[in-house]
């Protein structure tokens, strides 16, 4: 019998058949609607599963799942070491992983205003790799490309700036649905707007996904009760309007009990499987087991349509390293910040987007009254833009759902026959009208999920 060994954090799903009825798993789809990702091994169908991470999985010759045995389980066993010792270990491990992943290939590095890509830029510059970098921002939004350009200039990388245009999604939504198989909503993968640009950029992507989870704490009490922990995780994974949409679907499909109880039980069961006492470490393990491979990973396939990808933070060795580092060293991005300061102090002096206008030396000042002048100036700028008919764009859905042309394309997909009778037209109209007339921010996620389901149903109907 074939055995498939899955990574600690898989970058792509491995599917297996299950001996069950070939029908849509409506309970799993409700979770997807609420959170934006499928939980655990769930898929759209009852007879299809995704193999669990960090496991040796046995399947038969026909591809049917038999059993899985974990070869790694997340743990929390912090060693007694100084911060300087932890920093040195991280430095050696991170640079070794990147060096092994990249080799002599020409690297494509997406740069943002955050820390993960900046940490990669630090290592790639130190290792003297050949790098083509780029950054993008929303047209009419915060000019994040400015930070990327500064980082690239300091590292002597080639750099290109791109602006994500309004309504780009509708020209590529069918292709995107094929690439990610509708396992992620469509308003997040902005990289799809640049997919044609990637072909000539280089040979290999170096992507910073999941660094912000591994190298930070949860900021919660280290000894939450089980009930409090379940509530905390639910609060983190549920999207605005997601619970309302899931409840509506659950009731329309006349599923037993309630969706709220079902999701609580699922999350509670998964948390109990993680044998870690420290709350922050347990939350990190939960996210890495169930969130990273099912929410963060699906759209990595967009990059892979053009070139192979490398993910230093997904590396098995990095995950094992995290399990043995004291939480105090991981909290507040301490290790990444110290690494950048150590290897390239000039990069640490560039603005940190999360704490703008401050940098890695001054971000502790991002509190009142120190940040008031900047906040007031930015608010005035947005108000002036709005008066000039140029609203400030903060979220990707604003580029895709707002405006007459976007609205027409959105309605074409939502109210075509692909979703019926799976989801009724009255329910679709209810959430469309709530987005249009009640609260666009809250109902943008439900609308995006309904759009995703519409594309999935179209795939199923047309093969």
SS strand fraction: 5-15%
Main sheet attributes: strand count, strand direction, barrel closure: 5 strands, parallel
End-to-end Cα distance, whole Å, is: 30 Å
Query: Which structural class fits the helix and strand makeup?
Result: alpha/beta
Mean pLDDT: 92
CATH class of the largest domain: Alpha Beta
Global outline: globular
The CATH topology of the largest domain: Rossmann fold
Q: Helix amount, in percent?
A: 40-55%
H/E series, N to C? Answer: EEHEEEHEHEHEHEHHHHHHEHHHHHHHHH
Total number of domains = 3
Number of strands: 10
Name the strands of the widest sheet in spatial order.
8-7-6-9-10
Second rung of CATH, namely the architecture of the largest domain = 3-Layer(aba) Sandwich
Instruction: Let me know the CATH homologous superfamily of the largest domain.
Output: HUPs
Number of helices: 20
Can you lay out the helices and strands and say which pair or pack?
Elements: E1 3-5, E2 15-17, H1 26-35, E3 48-50, E4 55-59, E5 65-70, H2 83-102, E6 107-110, H3 116-126, E7 131-138, H4 145-155, E8 158-164, H5 169-180, E9 204-206, H6 211-214, H7 226-237, H8 242-252, H9 259-272, H10 279-296, H11 300-304, E10 309-310, H12 316-322, H13 327-330, H14 334-343, H15 345-348, H16 372-387, H17 396-401, H18 404-414, H19 425-437, H20 440-462
Parallel strand pairs: 6-7, 6-9, 7-8, 9-10
Antiparallel strand pairs: 1-4, 2-3, 4-5
Helix pairs in contact: 1-8, 3-14, 7-9, 19-20
């Amino acid at each position: 019998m074939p055995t498939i060994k899955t990574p600690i954090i898989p970058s792509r799903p491995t599917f297996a058949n299950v001996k069950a009825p070939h029908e849509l798993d409506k309970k799993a789809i409700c979770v997807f609607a609420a959170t934006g990702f499928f939980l655990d091994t769930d898929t759209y169908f009852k007879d299809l599963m995704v193999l669990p991470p960090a496991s040796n999985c046995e399947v038969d010759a026909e591809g049917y799942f038999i059993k899985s045995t974990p070869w790694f389980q997340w743990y929390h066993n912090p060693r007694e070491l100084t911060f300087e010792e932890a920093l040195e270990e991280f430095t050696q491990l991170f640079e070794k992983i990147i060096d092994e992943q990249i080799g002599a290939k020409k690297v494509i590095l997406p740069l943002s205003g955050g820390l993960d890509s900046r940490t990669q830029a630090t290592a790639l510059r130190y290792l003297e790799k050949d790098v083509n970098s780029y950054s993008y921002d929303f047209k009419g939004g915060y000019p994040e490309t400015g930070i990327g350009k500064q980082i690239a200039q300091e590292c002597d990388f080639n750099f290109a700036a791109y602006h994500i245009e309004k309504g780009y999604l509708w020209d590529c939504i069918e292709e995107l649905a094929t690439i990610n198989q509708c396992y992620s909503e469509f308003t997040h993968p902005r990289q799809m707007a640049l997919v044609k640009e990637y072909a000539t950029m280089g040979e290999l992507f170096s992507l910073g996904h999941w660094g912000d989870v591994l190298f930070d704490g949860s900021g919660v009490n280290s000894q939450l009760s089980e009930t409090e922990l379940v509530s905390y995780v639910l609060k983190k994974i549920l999207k605005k309007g997601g619970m309302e949409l899931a409840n509506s679907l659950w009731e329309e499909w006349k599923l037993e009990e309630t969706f709220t109880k079902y999701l609580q039980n699922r999350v509670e069961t998964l948390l109990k499987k993680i044998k870690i006492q420290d709350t922050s470490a347990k939350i990190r393990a939960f996210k890495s087991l169930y969130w990273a491979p099912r929410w963060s990973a699906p759209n990595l396939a967009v990059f892979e349509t053009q070139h192979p990808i490398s993910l230093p933070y997904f590396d098995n060795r990095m995950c094992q390293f995290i399990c043995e580092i004291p939480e105090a060293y991981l909290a507040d991005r301490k290790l990444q910040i110290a690494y950048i300061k150590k290897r390239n102090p000039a990069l640490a002096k560039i603005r940190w987007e999360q704490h703008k206008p401050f940098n890695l030396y001054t971000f502790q000042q991002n509190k009142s009254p120190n940040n008031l002048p900047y906040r007031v100036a930015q608010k005035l700028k947005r108000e002036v833009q709005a008066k000039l008919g140029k609203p400030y764009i903060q979220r990707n859905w604003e580029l895709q759902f707002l405006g007459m042309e976007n609205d027409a394309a959105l309605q074409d997909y939502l109210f075509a026959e692909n979703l019926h009778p799976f989801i009724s037209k009255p329910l679709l109209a209810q959430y469309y009208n709530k987005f249009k007339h009640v609260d666009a921010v809250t109902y943008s996620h439900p609308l995006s999920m309904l759009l995703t389901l519409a594309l999935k149903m179209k795939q199923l109907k047309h093969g």
